[in-house]
């Protein structure tokens, strides 16, 4: 089990936050996701056998929100 | 080009921007988004299934209304 913080651009309100939390929360291997609108980040706790930071970043990006990994 | 109309459960600017991004990522589409009426009208040669799959990536509830 690992955790990653992903920067997320483009959220404007709480319903954006919920959309991301619901969609990503249902992905295989995601244990917990917490999105902060103010900080523009998503913190995800995941099973490293099923997900990795890149796959999670890509799934958020595919939803239409600009997501990037911390360097 | 065939024109397809969808309802997308959008509530804010963030949602409509997300729809814009996924459609632009797909490419080969021209579209109009009507946020107040929660409608998206797409001009495209892509199949309705492809368009539905693409819109569903946003995590929103999507309904196909038909060709226009
Ligand atoms: Cu929003
Ligand atoms: Cu929204």
From TrEMBL, chain B:
An example Gene Ontology molecular-function term: metal ion binding
Keyword Heme: no
Gene3D superfamilies reported for this sequence: 3.30.70.100
Gene Ontology cellular-component annotations: cytosol
Domain of life: Eukaryota
Database matches in InterPro entries: Copper_transport_ATOX1-like (IPR051881), HMA_dom (IPR006121), HMA_dom_sf (IPR036163)
Gene Ontology annotations of biological process type: copper ion transport
Pfam family, one: HMA
Keywords: Chaperone, Copper, Copper transport, Ion transport, Metal-binding, Transport
Domain (HMA): residue spans on this chain: 6-60
Annotated family: Belongs to the ATX1 family.
Assembly notes: Homodimer. Interacts with ATP7B. Interacts with ATP7A. Interacts (via dimer form) with SLC31A1 (via C-terminal domain); this interaction improves ATOX1 stability and controls intracellular Cu(I) levels.
Protein task: Binds and deliver cytosolic copper to the copper ATPase proteins. May be important in cellular antioxidant defense.
Protein name from the UniProt record: Copper transport protein ATOX1
Organism: Monodelphis domestica (Gray short-tailed opossum)
Gene coding for it: ATOX1
């Amino acid at each position: 089990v690992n955790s990653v913080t992903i920067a997320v651009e483009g959220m404007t309100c709480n319903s954006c936050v919920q959309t991301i939390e619901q969609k990503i929360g249902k992905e295989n291997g995601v244990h917990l996701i917490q999105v902060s609108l103010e900080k523009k980040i998503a913190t995800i706790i995941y099973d490293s056998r099923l997900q990795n930071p890149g796959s999670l970043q890509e799934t958020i990006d595919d939803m239409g929100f600009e997501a990037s990994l911390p360097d | 080009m065939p024109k397809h109309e969808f309802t997308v459960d959008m509530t804010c600017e963030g949602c409509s921007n997300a729809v814009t991004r996924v459609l632009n990522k797909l490419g080969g589409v021209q579209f109009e988004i009507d946020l107040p009426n929660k409608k998206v009208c797409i001009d495209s040669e892509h199949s309705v299934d492809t368009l539905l799959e693409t819109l569903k990536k946003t995590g929103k509830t999507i309904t196909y209304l038909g060709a226009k």
